[in-house]
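Lab notebook, bench 4. We co-purified these components, and the gel suggests they stay together. Before we commit to crystallization screens, I want a quick structural picture of the whole thing.
Request: model the full complex, all chains together.
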Amino acid sequence: MLSSVTLTHYLIVSGILFSLGIFGVVTRRNAILVLMGIELILNAANINFVVFSRYGGFNPDGQMVAVFVIILAAAEAAVALAIVLNIYQRFNTVNVDDISRMKE
Amino acid sequence: MSLYDYTFYAFAFITLVSAGIVVFSKNIMYAAFSLLFTFFGVAGIYVLLNADFLAVTQLLVYVGGILVLLLFGVMLTNKVVDVDMKTSTLQTIPAAIIVGLTAGTLCGIFYISDWKTASITSPPQSTIKTIGEMMMTSYLLPFEIASVILLVALIGAAILARKEKQGAN
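Here is the predicted assembly.
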């Protein structure tokens, strides 16, 4: 039996996920929740890569790019959390609105 | 409706609902734990798309690495004993309007576009062998650069996060 789920269904899921991530980045004041929004955006982009890889005739190039996106997301999360911890030690807050200066 | 369709809708539901909780929950811990279910749902979507290696990598790196890192961040930057786990939002209404317009535009373009999909031949058994071979041949340079970037990020994060010595400035 032929499945009725097509390319468009996956693309719409990733589009909604991307928009939710943007909403989180724009509205959240806690720096760690902003990072979570960025992770959602990266996941939405990855879904797009894999979907086009699958519906482009099982072309594995899209999956390779998705692997590299995951690698860079891991590096980004580590460095960003180190920066957030430093900010917390210095300013005693992670509210992104209160951190408007590079030095005290 | 086949079993594939039901599985897709289940994973899409899990992903989008838990992503909504990540974005809208006032409690940081609820947001962090529903991010777990978002990552699981995305891994399920990868499985449905014949990307088994990516699904396993998603579970290992995102759930096992990034999520634990984010939880550490939540624990270290909030006074858990003070029950100060609430977080506020700002500019919700304009952000909702703009993001709603973005989502509508994206989904509308996705819907009306006439996508040319390749005729589906028999799916490959496993992508792991293909990905391994491509990593060592046509993607060798990005692979090496990624390893150097991971090393730099490791050292940089360790240097940034350690406590400063007294009088080091």
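The domain at 7-91 of chain A is CATH 1.10.287.3510 (Helix Hairpins). Worth comparing against the SEC data before the next meeting. The radius of gyration of chain A is 18 Å.
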